[in-house]
Design brief:
- By secondary structure, this protein is of the alpha+beta class.
- The chain has 4 helices and 4 strands, in the order ααββααββ.
- A 4-stranded antiparallel β-sheet has the order 1-2-3-4, covered by helices on one side.
């Protein structure tokens, strides 16, 4: 008899964040862009100023729709990549700021409940990779 797979706590947490109507179906749709290489004007140290540095960007959006049948219910992953590329064109001091700004832009792209942005800066350390992650949730629209 095959062993039962353990429940993924990340998936469970996402399911609990969904409205009750979505949890009933168990459907959660994620749109991902992973390991997007960018050349960015980023940094605060004297050796970083005035030069481009590599970043590796990953983004995960949780869509609002329980079921996605059209692009209007989703976000085109090319738009996510384009936002990251546009952000990389102007100087940003910290990767934390870059991640937050990209998360804000991604929330504005369509029917998104939340976004998780990870930025790696591979040349920041002699050994290892510096990285940050930002998770941002869409603010509910209030009736006026």
């Amino acid at each position: 008899m095959a062993a039962m797979a353990e429940a993924d706590p990340n998936i469970e947490a996402l399911a609990l964040a969904q409205p009750a109507s979505n949890r009933a179906s168990g459907a959660i749709t994620l749109v991902r862009v992973r390991d997007l290489p960018l050349s960015a004007v980023i940094g605060i140290n004297p050796d970083e100023l005035g030069r481009r540095q590599p970043l590796i960007v990953s983004v995960e959006l949780t869509l609002a729709a329980e079921r996605v049948d059209t692009l209007d219910q989703s976000v085109d992953y090319r738009r996510i990549a384009a936002e990251a590329e546009r952000l990389a064109e102007n100087h940003v001091t910290l990767i934390e700021i870059f991640a937050r700004r990209l998360a804000e832009r991604c929330l504005a792209l369509g029917p998104v409940l939340d976004v998780d942005v990870s930025i790696c800066k591979p040349q920041a350390l002699v050994r290892g990779t510096a990285s940050v992650s930002v998770r941002m949730t869409a603010q509910p629209v209030t009736a006026q």
